[in-house]
Amino acid sequence: MSRMMDFKALPKIELHAHLSGSISRQCLHDVWVKKHQAGETTLEDPLIQMPLGKHDYDLETFFPLFSSYIYHLVNDPWSLRYTTLSVLADFVADGVVYLELRTTPRALPTHEEYVQAILDAIAEFEAQVPPPKLRTKLILSIDRRNPPATAFSVLSLCRKFYGHGVVGLDLCGDPASPTSLLHSFTPIFSAARSSLPNLGITLHFAEASCSGTDQELDLLLSWRPDRIGHVIHLSDKIRQRIKDCDKKIGLELCLSCNVHANMITGGFEGHHFGEWWKVPETIVTLGTDDVGVFGSPLSNEYALVAKHFGLTQQEICDLARKGIDIIFGGDEEKERLRKIMWT
Ligand SMILES: [Zn+2]
């Protein structure tokens, strides 16, 4: 039954998408052509650097793709606006009606101007006539490799832009960076909780075995996240702690990313979506993580769970709607989504 479903037409919520990783290769190519012609870049064409159809980036090759390529290509206000508008157009074309994009602020030219430029691009996109069905909010990320001062500045940016489009704070970055560095972030997350009680907190959680120790995950859970992403390498003790949280915790699961990056074994059938999606103490939502890198739009993630876990059309609609309860975008937005999402 569900194989006949139109997953693109299904109104969907995307809560785990990184801005820079969501840029399509064609869009990166367009940026490159303009800069290349103007003599502004010595980088290689993105279509050579990241050939179409190549999606097997793993944790070793994934992070350098950004630090040594994408961040050097998208490095000015023009390319930031251009790529943000392109990302929004791609999500709306895939039937996404609510999006929380996340990004680690960069000095373009200042961190504040970087965030403002993205919010301006979102406002510009939403001002189209007729207005697109997509509404977009921003989550600011602390990279786990950041020194504490940089991480604190991300919290300051949350304070400044809270109520103006920024709805959450995230912890991301290379899971190979040591757990010991995370302790310095505890005051930041507790200050976020006390000074901005409605700011959502989401954390990349147990992405790799090195970042899946009880020591690290106990620390992350002590920050009282509303949502956690990936949730792969965890002990039974942590699994139980997640279920015992007094508030239902949201799990942002990214199937194609995990399979293509070899973060799990057993292919799609072996993905821990199968373990979690019916657990009543949690709320599972599907995310693309980096559709520009892994090439699977959100509609395809729904098609994959229907195919590999046998969800019926009703179960697909229920799964999509469950995400409403864990968005960071506020009650008015939840009301809008309850009206437009399929029952
Ligand atoms: Zn992620």
Automatic annotation (TrEMBL):
It comes from the Eukaryota. Keywords: Hydrolase, Metal-binding, Nucleotide metabolism, Zinc. One of its GO terms (molecular function) is metal ion binding. SUPFAM superfamilies: Metallo-dependent hydrolases (SSF51556). Pfam families: A_deaminase. Belongs to the metallo-dependent hydrolases superfamily. Adenosine and AMP deaminases family. This is Adenosine deaminase domain-containing protein. It comes from Podospora australis.
